[in-house]
């Protein structure tokens, strides 16, 4: 017995040595088992873009994944953005490959009319599969639509329309100098004209980098507190500044329905623009110097202005605010002065914005946090105060009746959200409360107000007399059961019009026809465990249903997989839940290796933490880097196992470790109790904050045989001004930052841990150095660890080669250290014989 155990231990040791040796030698992308490749490579169904009036749909063809050659092309990382210097736009790897048009009310199997994109006008493109359609947008007139195409010479803007015969017209090239670095194109209120940014004429060559520095790069501060979260892709030197200015600088141009062009304003870095409902003015935010090396472009100084669209390039009509660099703003605070500036829907040209009354500091006690003010064109009569908000203002919604509007407020201390209905016809009247609940209270969510574009393209609530409509996910103890309600604005009475039945997952996409005297006609999207999502035309009054699409199952080979919602309790009595997946060939009573996959969430109280999210009746998909492919390798999976961290928002991380350990143990106990899991073969995994959780569980518990941590952060002293929901800076809570940083407890990680990270991770806080240093810490302390850094990949992994390699890594690692590990002597003999 002792002899066999020693031999088996030697094999394990040799396996560790061999693994380290292979790690240094196995350059090149690996492939998972063929059954996994077939699943991941399955072509997705088309994306659907419906016209605003829901009479037409564009079917947008797409690929499963880009190739590494596309992901690895040149990219500029500037001011918190990732730019494609060829397209003069955001760096993009997923494109639409074709556009089809069909009426919503036609037979699902009717031939789709193809939009004939003229390939001879697309530089260096020789076949339809190479077309790179970056974005598609309908006009609010539901007849015209436009799309942008990335070529090897830049980015083009095309427009097309639906002809009287119901066919798409031949697309017309609007411009081949489109610049989308700071955002896309917009339809103007007339529904025919398009406003966009163009690469300035005679821009010249990209600024060359001087390899010989003119001096050091210097930053300085003069005693002001400037707490700043950690950001990626920041400017680093004067050459970066030049590049950012070169690519972000653009000329705004209006193209009317006939294709005529008119320049608007001077070239600049226009962070945003929006036309007034009457089409006479343009709200513009212009970025100004100096730039920052510590913050993204969103925090750079800027001018918020109103331009007169009828005045050409000399068009400044009003300056809303000159905003300095966003410094000295408390964590979770806001800047002072006008913010969230926008046009009021339903009136000609009125601006509304919020202003902080507490200095923007959430830690300051104040009777009112914000106020909303407005000003009417021609902007020479001063502002008017609309309302004061007790909590932080988070937006305004408008109605067809311009005297009505809804304010949304958020109390960060309670994580509480409230919406109030105001009527300017009765200014002294107390506003009506539409919602007032914990933002984590999924069961109490009344749904979102259904909105539609009006005749100018601005958004208003869909309204029938005194009734508005709400749609929501319908969270319940049985999972999500989506619904559509209507609410009376006078009485606040709510009527349930329809709710998804149990056994499927069906949600309302669009209200097509409505009448206050009858239930509406809606378009829904329905799916089940075995049926892929498809669109339906549903008459709620007659309950008649007509299919709109007939998308087929892309991966029928996985339909035998079983899944169910399971509920259980943590040691402290907090109810928990997870979706349990079992392989298609699972035999009752069989104890399988178990993977617990999770992501921690913060809650103020146990009641909301216990609420169920998601639905066990959604169509099972396996795409990209999903961990569900491990079902093909014989694992049981407790997916989305709830890991609530409950407590006061200021101090809840004081008990983070204990709460996640207790939650993990409860998940394992449940799977073992059900007879589906082998307690001695359990792994844990997670992505991003889930990876942080995974490393902590590996360090502070001994219930897992191995772990998989993807794109995580492990040393919280490197994110010293807060992270996730942690509000305290490092210097106010050093002990907590140390306690919950698994890097500082790497000597306790004595089970195998696989670390995966994209070399170009752009997520705030999860710098790639986090995984590199974690690997060194575990390795230096004698632990079993493997680090996989994926070239050119970001926080999520996109290229086919990277995705399949990630699948291969996870499967091989967990098979070696979890599924196939046993200390049974007979198994040891078998393992020896197979070497």
What would you say about this model in short?
The protein is α+β, with helices and mostly antiparallel strands.
Enumerate the strands of the largest sheet in spatial order, edge to edge or round the barrel. Answer: 39-40-42-41-43-44-45-46
What is the β-strand count?
46
Task: List unreliable stretches of 5+ residues.
Answer: 1-25, 825-835
Radius of gyration: 28 Å
Overall structural class, as computed from helix and strand content, comes to: alpha+beta
Mean pLDDT: 91
The best one-word shape is globular
- Main β sheet profile: 8 strands, mixed
Helix count, per DSSP?
11
- N- to C-terminal distance: 20 Å
Strand content: 25-35%
The percent of residues in helical segments reads 10-25%
How would you describe this protein?
- This protein is an alpha+beta fold and 835 residues long.
- It contains eleven helices and 46 strands.
- The strands form eleven sheets. Strands 39-40-42-41-43-44-45-46 form an eight-stranded mixed β-sheet, with helices on both faces.
- Helix 6 (656-673) crosses helix 7 (689-700).
- The longest helix is centred in the N-terminal third of the chain and has 24 residues, at 2-25.
